[in-house]
Specification:
Elements lengths: L9 H5 L4 H8 L3 H5 L11 H4 L12 H8 L9 H4 L7 H9 L3 H9 L5 H7 L22 H14 L25 E5 L3 H12 L3 E5 L8 H4 L8 H13 L3 E3 L10 H6 L2 E6 L5 E2 L12 E3 H10 L16 E5 L3 H12 L4 E6 L10 H9 L3 E4 L1 E8 L5 E14 L5 E14 L2 E4 L3 E2 L31 E3 L2 H4 L4 H21 L8
Parallel strand pairs: 1-2, 1-4, 2-3, 4-15, 6-13, 7-8, 7-13, 8-9
Antiparallel strand pairs: 5-14, 10-11, 11-12
C-alpha cells in the first residue's frame, strides 16, 4: 500500500536513528531475518525468449519485495553503500520498502539517482553494492539490492504516484531563495552521465539544457542496450523524471559542429559538462576486418535497437540460418549474441581469448546467454577473417590460447599455443573488444589524451578549461552506466562548489 501521510524530510527518511527505523529493526530478530531465503525474480522461460523482445526479468511483486527487504539487517556501518558509485542510501530505501512506504523509498533513491529503474536493471550489483552486503560474511546470498531498486522505480511508475512528489525541489539558502537560479549550464550528451549531472544541477536551481546529437535521448541506454534487457519505455520514463526537474532537452544538435563553443557562450551558458561517451569502434587490426560480414557491436546494436523504426524494414536485420560469432565477453558482447538469436541465428557464439573465470560480463547475462543456447569458445582469439567466392565473410581463423601469469588488471594473461589454429565457419562476426572516446571539437586548448579521452580530474570532472567539466566514458573509456552516473554526480557537486566561490555572472572562458 502507499503512504499518504505528511511527507517526511530527507533526514527523517534516511536516518538510521529515526524512530520508525528503530521500531522496524525490533520487529524481527536477526535470526528471523537471516532465515529468509533470497527472493528470486521471475523470468520469461528460455524456450520462449527467442520469440520475443520482451524483457527477460519480470520484476518482483510487492509481496516479494517486502519479504526481500525484511532480510536487510540495517547495519550501523552498511558495506553496501560503500560499493555504490552514486552513494545511494541503500538501507534507507530498503527499510521503506519493508514498511510498505514505496513512494518514500523512491524519494530516498531520488536524493542520489535519476535513473533507479535503469540502474536496477543494468548495474553490476554483484560487484558493487551487493558485494559489500553483510550476508556474504554469513555465507548467505546478499540482499537483492538491484531487484529492490528496480521494484521501487517500476511500482511507483506503474501506480502513477509521481504527482505525489515535489518535483524539482531545489536546494535552498536559509532565506528560502534557490542557489544559482538562472545560471545556464549546458550538458553535451544525454547518456547516463549527462542525465545524472543534469538532474543534480537542476535540483540546485541551475537552468540546465542537455544537447543530444542524435534524434533520441538516452545515449547508450537507447542505442546500445537491447529491449529484452532494458525496455525503451522505462528509459523514456526516467528521462521524463529528469525533465520534470526543469531540465530542457535539445536533440539533433552536434555540439562542436552545428553548435560551437562560441555559440554556447553567446547564448549565455556559463558552464559545460561533456558526457559524449565512447562510441568510436575499436578494431583488432587483423586481416579481413574489412570483409562484408564483419562489423562492430556498436553498428550492430544500433541497427538492432532501431530496426522497428519506419526508416528501416522489419526484416533488415534477419539472421535466419546464419552463423554468428561475437568477439569479446563483456556485457555488450552478451547483448549482441543474445540479440542474434532473437533475429533467427542458427548458431551464436562468444569467442573470448581468456577462460571462463575471467569473463567480465555480469553473471546473470552469462547465465541467460547459456540458457538461450549461446556457445562459448573460450581460450580462442581470432587472427584472420576469410571471405568466400562472393566476397563476403565465410570463416574465421582462431588461435587457441592458454592462461599465463596475471596481467596488470589482475587477470591471468592469455598466451598463444604455438601452431594451434582452427578454422570456424561464420556468416557474421561482431567485434566487441571495447570502444574509444571521440571527443567533440569544443574549445581550442582543451586537454585531450592520445587515446581521445578528455583529461579531467577523476574526483571533480574539472578540465584545464575552467568552464568545462567532463565525465563518463569520454574520460574513463568504456565502462558501466553506474560509474558514468557517479562521474556526473561528482562533477555537479564540484561545478556547483566552484560557482559558489565566484560571482554568478562569470562568463565562459
Amino acid at each position: 500500500m502507499l503512504n499518504f501521510e505528511r511527507p517526511m524530510t530527507p533526514e527523517e527518511l534516511t536516518s538510521r536513528d529515526a524512530a520508525w527505523r528503530g521500531e522496524l529493526r525490533k520487529s524481527l530478530t536477526q535470526k528471523q531475518r537471516t532465515s529468509v531465503p533470497r527472493v528470486e525474480m521471475p523470468e520469461i522461460p528460455a524456450s520462449y525468449r527467442l520469440n520475443t523482445d520482451k524483457e527477460v526479468n519480470q520484476g518482483l511483486s510487492a509481496e516479494q519485495a517486502v519479504l526481500e527487504a525484511s532480510r536487510c539487517l540495517d547495519c550501523p556501518d552498511p558495506g553496501c553503500m560503500k560499493g555504490c558509485p552514486v552513494s545511494n542510501f541503500i538501507p534507507a530505501f530498503i527499510k521503506n520498502i519493508e514498511r510498505r512506504h514505496f513512494a518514500d523509498a523512491l524519494d530516498v533513491l531520488s536524493l542520489t539517482t535519476v535513473l533507479p529503474a535503469v540502474c536496477g536493471r543494468v548495474c553490476p550489483q554483484e560487484k558493487q553494492c551487493e558485494a559489500g552486503c553483510i550476508y556474504n560474511k554469513l555465507k548467505k546470498p546478499p540482499v537483492a539490492i538491484g531487484s529492490l531498486e528496480r521494484f521501487v522505480a517500476d511500482f511507483n511508475r506503474e501506480m502513477e504516484c509521481q504527482d505525489k512528489h515535489e518535483k524539482g525541489r531545489p536546494f535552498t539558502m536559509a532565506n528560502g531563495s534557490p542557489f544559482f537560479a538562472g545560471i545556464k549550464i549546458a550538458v553535451v550528451g544525454s547518456g547516463p552521465s549527462g542525465l545524472a549531472f543534469a538532474g543534480d544541477m537542476a535540483k540546485r536551481g541551475y537552468d540546465v539544457t542537455v544537447f543530444e546529437a542524435l534524434d533520441r535521448l538516452g545515449g547508450v541506454l537507447k542505442y546500445g542496450i537491447p529491449e529484452f534487457c532494458l525496455p525503451k519505455d522505462v528509459v523514456n520514463a526516467e528521462i521524463s523524471r529528469v525533465a520534470d526537474l526543469g531540465v530542457k532537452f535539445v536533440k539533433n544538435t552536434f555540439v562542436g559542429t552545428t553548435l560551437t563553443y562560441e555559440d554556447l557562450q553567446a547564448q549565455g551558458f556559463k558552464g559545460i559538462y561533456v558526457s559524449t561517451g565512447a562510441g568510436k569502434p575499436r578494431f583488432m587490426g587483423i586481416p579481413g576486418e574489412n570483409i562484408p560480414g564483419v562489423m562492430t557491436a556498436n553498428e550492430y546494436l544500433i541497427r538492432y535497437n532501431q530496426m522497428r523504426n519506419n526508416i528501416y524494414g522489419q526484416n533488415v536485420m534477419s539472421l535466419n540460418r546464419k552463423r554468428v560469432a561475437v568477439i569479446g565477453a563483456g556485457n555488450t558482447a552478451m547483448d549482441a549474441v543474445r540479440a542474434a538469436l532473437r533475429l533467427g541465428a542458427e548458431k551464436a557464439m562468444i569467442v573470448y581469448r581468456r577462460g571462463e573465470d575471467e569473463i567480465p560480463a555480469r553473471a546473470e547475462e552469462v547465465r541467460h546467454a547459456r540458457e538461450e543456447g549461446v556457445e562459448f569458445l573460450t581460450l580462442h582469439n581470432p587472427v584472420e577473417y576469410l571471405s568466400g567466392p562472393d566476397g563476403t565473410l565465410r570463416a574465421m581463423r582462431l588461435q587457441k590460447m592458454e592462461l599465463g601469469e596475471p596481467d596488470a588488471s589482475g587477470r591471468r594473461a592469455p598466451v598463444e599455443i604455438p601452431g594451434a589454429i582452427e578454422e570456424v565457419e561464420v556468416d557474421l562476426a561482431i567485434i566487441c573488444v571495447g570502444y574509444l572516446p571521440n571527443p567533440p571539437e569544443l574549445k581550442a586548448g582543451l586537454d585531450i589524451s592520445g587515446k581521445g579521452k578528455i583529461v579531467a580530474d577523476p574526483e571533480t570532472g574539472s578540465t584545464n578549461q575552467p568552464s568545462i567539466y567532463a565525465g563518463g566514458d569520454i574520460v574513463r573509456g568504456a565502462a558501466t552506466v553506474i560509474l558514468a552516473m557517479g562521474d556526473g554526480r561528482r562533477a555537479a557537486q564540484a561545478m556547483s562548489d566552484a560557482f559558489a566561490r565566484i560571482i554568478s555572472g562569470t562568463t565562459l572562458g
